[in-house]
Structure formats: C-alpha cells, structure tokens
Specification:
Its EC number is 7.6.2.1. The protein is of the alpha+beta class and 1149 residues long. The chain is built from 37 helices and 37 strands. The protein starts with 10 loop residues before the first strand and ends with a helix.
Length: 1149
Amino acid sequence: VTYCNRTHKERHLRANDREFNLSFKYANNAIKTSKYNVFTFLPLNLFEQFQRLANAYFVFLLILQLIPQISSLSWFTTVVPLLLVLSITLAKDLSDDITRHKNDNHVNNRKVEVLINGELKSEKWMNVQVGDIVKLENNEFVTADLLLLSSSEPLNLIYIETAELDGLVSNRFIKYSISILYISGEVRCEPPNNRLDKFTGTLTMRGETFALDNERILLRGCTLRNTEWCFGLVVFGGPDTKLMQNSGKSVFKRTSIDHLMNVLVMFIFGFLAFMCTILSIGNAIWEYQEGNSFITFLPRADGANASLSAFLTFWSYVIILNTVVPISLYVSVEILRLGNSYFIDWDRKMYHVKSDTPAQARTTTLNEELGQIKYIFSDKTGTLTQNIMTFNRCSINGKSYGKSSKKKIDFSWNSLADSKFCFHDHKLVEAVKSGSPEVRAFFRLLALCHTVMAEEKTEGELFYQAQSPDEGALVTAARNFGFVFRSRTPETISLVEMGVPTTYELLAVLDFNNVRKRMSVIVRSPEGKLTLFCKGADTIIYERLHPSSSKLMEVTTEHLNEYAGEGLRTLALAYKDLDEDEFEKWKERHHEASTSLEDREAKLDTIYEEIEKDLLLLGASAVEDKLQDGVPQTIEQLAKADIKIWVLTGDKQETAENIGYSCNMLREEMKEIFIVAANTAEEVREELVNARKKMSPESGDEPPIEKSRLLGKKSQVVEDEKVDGEYGLVINGHSLAFALQKDMQLELLRTACMCQAVICCRVTPLQKAQVVELVKKHKKAVTLAIGDGANDVSMIKTAHIGVGISGQEGMQAVLSSDFSFAQFRYLQRLLLVHGRWSYLRMCKFLRYFFYKNFTFTFVHFWYGFFCGFSAQTVYDEWFITLYNLVYTALPVIGLSIFDQDVNDRWSFQYPQLYAPGQLNQYFSKMAFARILLHSCYSSLVLFFIPWAAMCDTVRDDGKDIADYQSFALLAQTCLLIAVSVQMGLDTYYWTAVNQFFLWGSLSVYFAVTFTMYSNGMYLIFTSSFPFIGTARNSLNQPNVWLTIFLTTILCILPVVAKRFLFIQLKPTINDKVGSNYVVTSNMMCSGRVACTRRSGYAFSHARGYGDLVTSGRFLRIPVKSRPALFPHTDTPALRLFKKSFILADFVCF
C-alpha cells in the first residue's frame, strides 16, 4: 500500500486511464489493519511491552542479577515471572493480530468486476486502482469510494445499506447517464479526509463541467440493496477511503484507578529506593564496625571498603526487594476486567428479547469506572423515549381534534389506510369527508412536505421508509385521512386524494438544517397552481407568518399549550401561494447557489429565507413519543444513588421540560425550577447568579476552587457547594452558547451542579460535548454519556464512559460507545450491580495485592538488620519465584471475579450502597497508606514471632532446630497462611471456585515444598535445591505449627478488632445492610399537578434529505420523592432481623 501524495492538494484523476492515475502514486485498494507480520511480530511486540515501566524495570533487575558482586538471587527468580507476563501478553496480541490478518485477507481477496480495455474482468479488491470503473451487483459490498455513474433501476435509482457507517438504510440516485464504455472524463476533488458528510469536486466530460457533492458518492462500507447493478468510478481506494480514514485510533480512556495506580507505582519506586538506601547505610555502618571481624574467613577483594560494599548492597537490595514493584499487577488487572466484562455480556436480565439485543461491553478496560459515576448526560429522543411516534392531536383552522373517545375510528372506507393507525376523534373524519378546504389542505401538506420513500410490494400495501419517526407518523396520518402518499420521482410526487390519483410536480425542496429548523417544498398542482408548503418549530414558523394569521396564531398557541401539558411533540404548518414570475427569478438564484463550490450551504439558506415569508398558518400537529419502559423508575433509583442526571436534547424547551416531569427528573415538590432563556450574555449571567444565590445565599462570587498539580498537569476542581433542598435547571441552546463562554462557564457549572436535575434543550452535538467536557474538567467526578443517535457520538466519546443504545437512529452511537444495550432501564443494572461489583472487586484486588506483596517484602527488610545487611534472602529462592505466580495468583483472581458484598436484588433495594464508589472510599491514597501500615505490622509479626520461636529451640528428639533453612521455611509458611486467611476474611461471597483456588493453592504449596526439599531433587539438581529434608524435619514438630497458628492469629487480630469496633460504633451504609439493618426514611408521594408546559417538535440533528429528493437520490431508513442518601441516625426506623450477622447467609448470587 502506497501512502504517497497524501497532501492537502486536490486529487486529479481520469476515468479508465490507469497509466495517468498511477503517475500520482495514489494508494491502491488494499487495506491493512494488522500490526505485525512473521518477521516483525516478536521484535515489535517486545519493544512495545518494554515501553511499560514495570517490564523495563524487571529487565534492568535481570541485568543486575547477572553481576556476581551484586546478586544474591538466582536469575530464574526474575526471568520466570517476566517470561510468564511477556508470554501472556504475546499470546493475546498474537491472537488479536491473526484475527486482523484473516479479516484483511478476506476483504482484500473479494472479487469485483472492473472495466478494463472495454471489457468487464474479475479482479480482487486489492488490485483495484483509482480511476477504475467497477460494476457492483445486488447485495455486494461497495469496493471503494465511488462516483456513481448509472444503475439498472428507472431514473438511475439505487438503494444502499450504510450499516457499517451509521447503521441506516439509504437510497440515492443520480440525474444524468454516462456512456460507460467510452467515458473519458476527468475528476478534480478534495484530498482524502474523514468527513463522511461532505465531498467537493467537479467532473469534466465532453466539454461540460458538473459539480460533485457528497450525494453523488457511494462510500466503502455500504452494501447495494434491491438494485440489480450499478457502475461507479473509483475516487478513493484502500486507506484513502472515508471509512478507513475514520478508523483511526479512538480516544484511549483510562479509569481513575489507572491514574491512581500510576501515581502509586511511582511512589513505590521511590519507597523502594528509600528502603534500599536505609539498608545500604546500615551495611556501611556494619562493615565499618563489625566487618573486620570476618576478614579471616570472608576476605575482601582488593580495594573493597565499606563505601563500595554499601554501594553494591544498595543494588543487591534493589533485586531482593523487587517484589514491592508489582510486575504481575497489570496482567492480573486485565484478566479481572475481562472476566467482569463477560458478566455484562452474559447478563440475561439486560437482554432485550423484542429486538434480540444483548448488553455488550465493547471496552474491557473501564468496568470499575461504572461503579463511580456521579453525572449522567443523556439524550432524550430514543434514549429516554421510544422514538416511535403516534399521531394523537391536531389543530386545524382554530379547531382542536383528537380528544379520546371510547370508539376507535373505522378507516375501512379508505382501501389504502394503515390498519395499525389508531385515532378516536370522529369529527376529523367528518371534516375530511365533508370537503373542508382547511382540513384537506392540512393533510395535503403532510402528504407532500417530507422526504419519505414509499415502497409498494403488492397492490395497496404501502411501506414507508422515513428519515425520522416523526415524518413517518405524519405521513401515515395523512394516508389514513384520505391523502395517501404513494410514490415519488425526482420531479414528481404522486398522491391518492380521497380516492383520486393526483400527481404534483416537485419544483424544489428547502431542506432542514440545525439553523433553519423547518422544511419546505414547492409544488405545482395538476391545475398549474404554485404552492409552498412549510412545517417546522412553532416559534420559527410564527416569525414568518403573514399579519392576517395573527388571530389564528393566538388560538393555535392555546392548543399548543394544551398539547404540551399532555407531553406531545408539536409542529406548526403553513403555506403560501406563489407567483409564477417571482418563482422563476427565485429559481435562477437558487440554481446559482446550489452549483456554487464555496459556501454552498450558507448561500442556499439565504435564498430559502427570501421565499419563506408571509406564510399563512394552517394549524399544528401533535405526535406522542412515549417513554421507554422503566425510565421513571430507573431515574428514581439513580437519583437515590446520588447520581445527577442532565438531559441534553435538541428538542424545544417545553417538550424537554415536560418529558423531565414525566420521567421523574423534575418534580412538583422541588423548591424551584429555574428557567434560563436569556438572549444576551449579561442576562444569562444574571439569571445564573440569581439562581445560585437562591439555592445558596451564602455562596461567594468566586467559585470554591481546589487547585492541584498531578504529574506536571495543573487542574482546577470546583468544589461542591451545600444546597438546602432540591432544585432543577432548564436552559435553552441560545443561552447555553453564552454560558459556555470561557468567562462564564464556571458560573454555569456552579449553578448547574447545585441542582438535582439539569435539562439543556435546543443544543447542538458540539454543545453536548462541551457541557460534558466542562463537568469532566472542573469536577472531581466520573461522567457517563448515553445516547442512541449520530448526534450523540461527540458527547459519548468525550465522557469518561460512553453508553450507546441500539434504537431507531442507527448504530453510530453504539459503534462509538464503551458499553451498549437496547433500553435505558438497563442502565441502573449496569451501574448499581455490575458497576458497583466491578469497583468493589477491583479495589479489593488492589488492596489485597499490595498487602501481600508489601508484607512479603518487608520481612526481607527486617531480616536485613539480622544478617549484617548482607542482602541475604529470608525465603527459599523457589518460594520467591512462585509466590506471586502460583501460590497467591488464583485465589486473588477468584476473589476479584466472583466476590459480591450483596446480591443484585439488595443492590437495587439499597441504591445508597453506590455512594462509596463515588467518594473513592474503597481504594485511595489514604487506603494505600493504611495498607502500608497493615503490611508493616504483619511483617513485624511474621518475622519476629518465628524468629523468637526458633531461637534456642530444640526438636522433640533434642536436636537443634534453629538453622537458617528451618527459619526460612517457617517464615514463608506463616506468610502464605496469614495472607490466605486475610483473603478469606475479605471474601464476602464464597463459591466453589474460590474454595478450590484457596485450598488448592495451599495444597500446591505444601506439595511443591515437600517435593523440592526432598532427597531426590537434591541429588538431581544439587545447586538448585539445597533445602534437603528441611520440610519433613520442621513441619513434623508441634511447636512449629503452634508458631504458625499464633502468628496467623496475631496478624488478623487487629483487622477483626477494627472491623468489629467500626461496625458497632461507626457503621457505614454497607455495614448496616450487611448486618441486616434496613435503613428507611419517610416516603412522601404527591400526584402530578396539571400544568400548561409548552411542548415542541424537534427535528433530528442530522441534515435532511431534501437535496437527495430533488437531485435524484433518496434516503430510506428501513413521582415519588426520594429518601435522603444517608438518613440522620436519630430519625430512621431501624429494624434488626432475627437471624444473626453472617454475611454469607444473605449474600447470594
């Protein structure tokens, strides 16, 4: 694959001219996603692994061990653990890269027909070149980025599925036909880039120049559907295609525990250097004072003195105490995370049967972060709601229709009606049948002003493919009331109006975008009458109405308020009759703007504004977007867990606010809900400050900022401020744009974070990401973003955790997410169960891992004071080698994969259990300091008790037992049993696997010990196994076992005592639940109060497809109040269960 000539210059190519195109050295169509080949795998992978600090450190240790004057340990004590860690990583990377190679080969060896010298020849994808003309057939993948030339369908219509790009099904067609065999055109276009929604270029052919845009390009990653064949010109190939340009490295997310571990590892290195310095100084003093006494039988080398001995001793102890640096930590963490990810994938309670969609952990490195979420940023449509619209109400010429009656309307009079459509107001049907011109104009507008595609497989059976569910619902409503949209071409729209086939000439589509927030079409009726039909947000339409519509606007506004109280999404409809001459002049200006290569969109918006004025109001429609199942309950549970939810939506303020009430985010019993909707920066600031002062009168003008500097990075963290009561905040997109300015963003953050619920409406995708980034940057909290559409991708990637919902808006959100599932309600299980368990398990694992390693190492440290600081090891070398790899590896993995303090049912019953994760209570710098102290105490016991017990002790037969080898065996046995018992105390949930790992590891230790200390091993490997007979001569003595028992008891006694005292005197919420205490608080329920909150219709954030319609390419798209987090100890009712406190009795999976 050639990567040359990928500059910012334009691309120039000729069709069917390989010699010319090859001169530019454009990349061919082969792709390569694999990282290694046979020759580079080992060196490159090892190079990558040794870039990790821990691995490089152990290589450095190995080098030190090869120096005889320094090393007192055999080389295998470092080589065996290092090789095991490297081998596991090598095997994982090799498996991943083999899979990538297979995928690459599968794709590169696909066949496609290429036009060469006037003949179609079969070629592999990898051999296709830029400028080639390829033929695609039905259900074939698109070979490269192609310029569409022609197809088998009438009007060159083609259907494509873009699932690999955005999960949608699209349809496009082109206006002009080209003679395939003799094409000799030249294309000049933009260089390769990752903009999926934009393409700029020109095609020069037969003296004519055609403007090329994104709608004429067929991207690699699509699939041809329902089209027999099509031809295309290769513009970008292989790595230059937009799909591959978008396959760059995603933002690598690291958990807060990862960042903390990096800091701790740096501290451990410093602590290791400190211990080695202390011991080397001790060696210098000892050599100076006592060393001369040993010269007779331990002669010094020439030039050796106390200073040199201290220097060598320093490096010797770096080797001896290396276990304080956890080489196997990172591999163990990856195994733990992978195991917990499988639990999410396998959870049948997060499987959505209707859509056959399981939950999926798409990233395996963020599981424990799910147990620390403080802020959730959620989209509304399709995330909180079902994004399945039903036409419920409408206002036509000042009359409101749609109030429910018991009897459902019978649409049998309309043979083309949709049998699934339901409506209950018979007056509307009567108005249509009686020939009311306003009612018929209303439904005619709904049948004409859209970009829906109709498919009629059998006579009378229509299937609509809509860009959004809103459009589908409105067109279906028009269909049932007698105005049936049946088909369309680039120039016409065919309807059946009250049984009469009618064809309208489609002259222009003025499409929707984020600024316009409306859509219009210009059509000519069979009678020759020119009409502009427009639909959009009511505030936008009202600004463009003719003064004669003012009275109707007032009545319609009242109806809109009524619909808002019912939580419906509204849309205003208007029209305008056009003059022929005026339209022709406008059409010329429109053509100039549409063919412009610079600022095309801005020029078109200006042209649209010219004609969309003096409109006449027809009325308003209202569709219902129902909440997903379980959304209010989920938000209730998350709020009890002290998780704050912010809704970031493109909907109108009234709609978003009403949904906020429906899903229990906003509640009538809140002290106040602040509305920020100012139009200037100063007014926005004033409203934010006033809101903050109401919530916290004592808050100062300057935000309480905690400045910190971590690893060279400065950060400003805005501390939480106390608030009396619960508040809500609603801010619109216009005000949010001012609030996000640099000089005001901290004020927005302070005010919003004081509120229990925040709703940002009319926001753009960029603003969503900016809001998430603001909280992420200035709050010491973990954020989660959840959405289901392409407009949510930016915030999903920005947040610490991104969750995608596979819904009605494609798969882009899922493809960009870290976790995905089908329904919002599964979020509470993901966080309160899997997230909390993962965090608990990870913290237990780290605490125990550091404890066992520090305890192991500190015994060496104390022993240094009794061996003349000679860097002699206190343990057998084989025990040092196998301690982390065999004896303690599986038990801690079993603990960290299967342990749970309470089961999933109790996790839901007591969401307050989630709070410790938000506060980092289970593992922090302070917790690490406590581990150091605990390890220091345990090591003192593990060294001095065996030392005192062995000193001047004899066996039953009177022989001396106080030798170095017997002491080493006793010390290491005490250590292993003590840390195993400690792990047993830390285990809340015992399974057969835990039991097997724990008892199995102890059994393996004794089996290996008796084997390695046997006569046979000594005779075979004399130098490697010097502890001959030590095990059988020591472990058969009662006083040795008494010492082991006493040491173990003394090690765990402070832990048991501390836990007992804390449970009795200062119990946490976990202790209360764990000891069968039930924490309750008064629950006050209040019904919803009827109110007139305005709702509004919201378009999707994606640009509409009107230009596809007119250009010939279509797109088809198959209250309860909450208890306090920690109730005051003098107010809750405490109920003690009759059964005794045995945690394992009620903690069951």
